[in-house]
Write a structure and sequence with these properties.
The protein is an alpha+beta fold and about 325 residues long. It has 3 helices and 12 strands. The C terminus is likely disordered.
Length: about 325
């Protein structure tokens, strides 16, 4: 068809009719007046479409295969890159496994003591803040953290919150020389005060100078008024040495803390104290004593031993 004025007018007219039919069809929905015509057209042209599709599809599939081959190559390259990244992260996987174990232990302590805790990660240590034994956590006032809250981990008492920012908090560790916490002996309930000594065992002054204490006895936090700064029942440590009683009003103990203050990573801030004192229920199970093997020596008399009064001579 030649490009004339009449052909252009006819084209415009056909387009207008097509838009009109589309509009009527859409507004009619299931009751569209052109539905019958559409079904008739489908019946007439359907077989032709199928045959054309059968003839064209192999070509189309080949084109798609060529096009998708590039996508598959890109995806393969992406997977290889991800695998390389995963291999590079193998070392960090060990760390993640360790952190999961820490979190599991901490949640166990929180459950046993009925402590409501807010999990946190240690993001800085005291060297950046001075010479005191402190750590910085990645939680703060926006997370409900307040000054003088107890901090623990899966092993026991870590310290107390001293400074709170919007998104961070500073914790004074239990081994700091300026740190003091009230303690209670397991079973005997003897009360005392534990003080930090840096990298040395905690020093505990028992209020009863005649208290019966031995190596291996265990201590927990006594708790504070209104549970601040310390909630009760948090494991503190194990008695490693007892000074001889010299008739003083107090008795001095040295306690190895449960917590390793140089290996802190995942900790929990106690944001809700237990309704009742958990007493000794949060302490870890005592190790079973290793039995001492008993060696029995049995002496069997020799059958050729000489009898008293007899002398054996060689023949």
């Amino acid at each position: 068809m030649r490009d004339t004025r009449e052909s252009r007018l006819l084209l415009v007219l056909l387009i207008a009719v097509a838009f009109a039919l589309i509009t009527v069809d859409i507004r009619g929905g299931e009751d569209s007046p052109v539905d019958g015509a559409r079904q008739a057209a489908a019946a007439v042209f359907g077989p032709i479409e199928d045959s054309v599709s059968s003839a064209v599809n192999p070509v189309g599939n080949a084109v798609s295969a060529v096009r998708d081959s590039g996508e598959r190559h890109d995806r393969l390259a992406e997977l290889e890159k991800e695998n390389s990244a995963l291999k590079a992260r193998l070392g960090s996987d060990d760390r993640n496994s360790s952190r999961l174990k820490q979190l599991d232990k901490m949640l166990k302590i929180a459950g046993q003591g009925q402590y409501g805790i807010k999990g946190a990660e240690v993001i800085a240590i005291g060297a950046a803040q001075g010479f005191s034994w402190t750590i910085t956590l990645d939680v703060g006032a926006n997370d409900g953290i307040q000054r003088d809250m107890t901090v623990l981990n899966g092993d026991g008492l870590v310290g107390r919150v001293t400074t709170v920012g919007p998104n961070t908090a500073t914790v004074l560790l239990a081994n700091d020389p300026d740190f003091t916490v009230g303690t209670r002996m397991e079973a005997t309930d003897e009360l005392g005060f534990a003080s930090g000594q840096g990298d040395r065992p905690l020093r505990v002054e028992l209020l009863n100078g005649k208290a019966e204490v031995k190596k291996g006895d265990r201590l927990v936090t006594f708790g504070s008024q209104a549970d601040k700064p310390f909630v009760p029942g948090v494991p503190v440590g194990v008695v490693s040495r007892v000074d001889p009683s010299g008739g003083d009003l107090t008795r001095t103990l040295y306690v190895t803390p449960y917590v390793s203050f140089t290996k802190l990573d995942i900790v929990g801030v106690v944001v809700q104290a237990p309704k009742k004192d958990p007493r000794d229920t949060v302490l870890p199970a005592k190790p079973k004593p290793t039995p001492t093997p008993t060696v029995t020596v049995t002496v069997t008399p020799s059958a050729t031993a000489p009898v008293d009064g007899e002398i054996q001579q060689e023949q």
